Amino acid sequence: MHKTKLFSLLSLTTLLSGCFSFSGTTEYKGIRFPQTTSSEIAFQEQSIPGDCSAFAHLLMNSKMHSSGKDLSDAILQEAEDKGANLVLIGMTREMVKEDLEENRFDYYGPEYAYNFDKTWLGWKFGFNDWNDADGLVGLDAGTWGNSDISFNSSLLIQAVFLRCGQDH
């Protein structure tokens, strides 16, 4: 009888451990390319070269008190780990009620890489999260990478990871 209870408890614990993530992050299961070491940033859709494939749509949730450099370093590291050599940054919203202590990246597809120039349909992902955020924040070439500019609140940043050139 004691062995049956112990086995049931052990089985239940093992089963439940697969259902929950205690770290607060999920493993990336999207499209990947070989890692890169020098991704670039773009802020305008029309500046994306015609040979680029979009392979990840995401919203970055930044930790509180991030500088422009912190934001740049975090998103570029994430992009390079996934194989992006170009990142398109969209709009940014403040998240006043969020007190994030770590950056979080939420991915919204696509199911396959596509030619950005021919197929991009705009910022049509993550609407629930986007609509729950607060006011727009100016994040542009002047603030990006700038260690003198700090954002007190967490930010929600639209981004697309692209692979450009012949090796995609």
What does this structure look like?
- The protein has 168 residues and is α+β, with helices and mostly antiparallel strands.
- The protein is built from four helices and nine strands, in the order H-E-E-E-H-E-E-E-H-H-E-E-E.
- The strands form two sheets. Strands 1, 2, 4, 5, 6, 7 and 9 form a seven-stranded mixed sheet that branches. A two-stranded antiparallel ribbon has the order 3-8.
- The longest helix has 16 residues, at 2-17.
- Residues 2-24 have low confidence and may be disordered.
Helix-strand blueprint:
Layout: H1 2-17, E1 40-42, E2 52-61, E3 66-67, H2 68-82, E4 86-95, E5 104-107, E6 114-115, H3 116-119, H4 127-132, E7 136-137, E8 150-151, E9 154-164
List low-pLDDT spans.
2-24
Strand content: 25-35%
Q: Give the tally of β-strands.
A: 9
What's the helical proportion of residues?
10-25%
Q: Given the helix and strand composition, which structural class is it?
A: alpha+beta
Main β sheet profile: 7 strands, mixed
Number of helices: 4
Over the alpha carbons, how many angstroms does the gyration radius reach? 19 Å
Compact summary:
This protein is of the alpha+beta class.
Task: Note the main attributes of this structure.
168 residues; two-stranded antiparallel ribbon; 4 helices; 27% strand; disordered N terminus
